[in-house]
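so my prof wants the structure for this chain in the tokens format not the other one, which i didnt know existed until like an hour ago. anyway here's the sequence
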Amino acid sequence: MDVKEQINKIVEEVSRNPNIKEQFEKEPVKAIEKLIGIDLPDDIVMKIIDGVKAKLTIDGVPLFSCFR
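here's what i got, hopefully its the right format
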């Protein structure tokens, strides 16, 4: 699995879909597994979560109140 590709896919979905954004804020693991469609090992999920949060901050998409 290409983690960078999955991060980009999730960032795109979170950026344009308020329902997915809300789910990612509340339950990022479930949101990611729903978008990807498979149950992933915790270490991979955490890498994806960290990557999505970092990319959203870099791209200027305010997601979490601590980043605003």
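also thought this was worth mentioning. The chain has one domain: 3-59.
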